[in-house]
Amino acid sequence: MAHYLPLSRVARLVGVTRSTLQKMIQQGELDTFDGMVELEELLRVFPDVQWQNEGELDHVNAIKERAFGKRLMERVLPDKEVLAERLYELGKEFGSAKSLLQHYDQVFDWLCKQMSDVAVELGAEPAAAILALKHRLRQQLNAAPEEAERGKALLARESVMRIMSVHVTVQPSGHDFFVEGNDTLLEAALRTGIPLNYGCSTGNCGECKARLVSGQIKKVHPYDYVLSESEKANGGFLLCSYTAVTDVIIEAEVAGATDIPQQTIQTRLRNIEPLADDLVALHLFTPRSQRLRFLAGQKVSLGIDGLSGEYYIASCPCEDRHIEVHVRRDNQNFARKAFEGLNKDALVTLTGPEGNFVVKLDSHRPVIFLAWDDGFAPIKSLVQHVMSLEVADSMHLYWVSDRLVHYQENLCRSWADALDNFHYQPLSAKDGLARVIETIYAEHPDLKRCDIYAAGPAEFLEAARKAALDRGMSMLGWHMERIE
Questions:
Q1: Cα–Cα 20 to 30 A to 291, which of 104, 268, 414, 438?
Q2: For the segment 389-419, what is each residue's pLDDT rounded down to a tens digit?
Q3: Mean pLDDT lowest among 95-99, 335-339, 381-385
Q4: Of 319, 57, 5, 393, which Cα lies nearest the Cα of 167?
Q5: What is the mean pLDDT of the chain?
Q6: Contact 232, 91 (CB under 8 A)
Q7: 467 vs 71: CA distance, rounded Å
Q8: SS3 of 278, please?
Q9: E strands in 157-278
């Protein structure tokens, strides 16, 4: 009786990234069926993994959380009613499996009886052979191999995972995520960085309407939006009002840069973090009922006391209500206010987002990030978004320092320490532009399969683009944002 697991859950079980598993699949080291991994195949490919020991996996997850700059959140049990339904569904599966095993046992007993009856009718020699075969069959069934014990441990751990969190696949985009704790499907997707379409998030507008393809969901929040009878009959529901009880497949729209409306939000300044002599990070928080919808790489306008300025968001869309922007000392009125008279807990009006310098959510190709000075702000947002989605085959970050130091170097190095497929290299503009470009592409002689995201001055962008084209990059793989 085959047991299949989704790739994302396999990654959690064995303590590796999904991109690592995808690379193994591409190289023929791991076989899959419709994106699922069969239990026996998993045991074959990972013979040395100790399923009972979660310490190392927890350690890796803790490193990733610190590297992302997020606080470690306590894992909470789902709502008691959701938990009860998950346990009930798991019990049904257990009952079904037990019933099937009992049926197999009955079939085996029947087969043994038939073999004994046939042996009586044949002569002594054939009868002895049949009885010996029956004996060997019984020995094989009673001798549990080592893989059976390891498989039992894996299934036990997976069952606990399925109670604590369930797996969601989004069609037609192919994205997937886990619902944990008391999150709705919408909240869980946004925490992962998947920009499912939504509006009010309170059940009034219907913008987060989706369709259940398979699995079981449960209503956890009331809503006023009225679904038509045909929508309900077709599996229609609101992402903001339902959670998943079992692993589910849903049809839902993933928002692009042009799909997100302009928003005006009164944010509160929680912290002003000095980054360099002429650079600070503003850490803003939106109200609980009005988080900012944006994509990594976009920018917003900030205003206070009639002063305004435009800045790139340096945080990830997966960071809930937290918005980080990097403000450089310049002649903008808002920048002067930030350095000279902006107080903690000040109310800052945010308007946005704007811009199309965003991640290709459907790409699984290697990604190269190029940042020049504080062009690192949008690049940082993009890096964290790609990390959160876990879709890139590999990531390389090159950060060129000109007028500014590498002001968040420790963060970049922590990414490299936490993730096997992330590589970081700081560079200096003092070495000359030609030398910088040569160093960047030295490890990438062939760029046919790469996506490149670059933010910086025009001269740097043009030189980087030309060198990439010379190495086979498609223009579809080039994404840039000019920042002087």
A1: 414
A2: 887 889 999 999 999 999 999 999 999 988 8
A3: 95-99
A4: 5
A5: 88
A6: no
A7: 40
A8: coil
A9: 165-171, 176-180, 209-214, 217-219, 236-238, 242-244, 248-251, 263-276
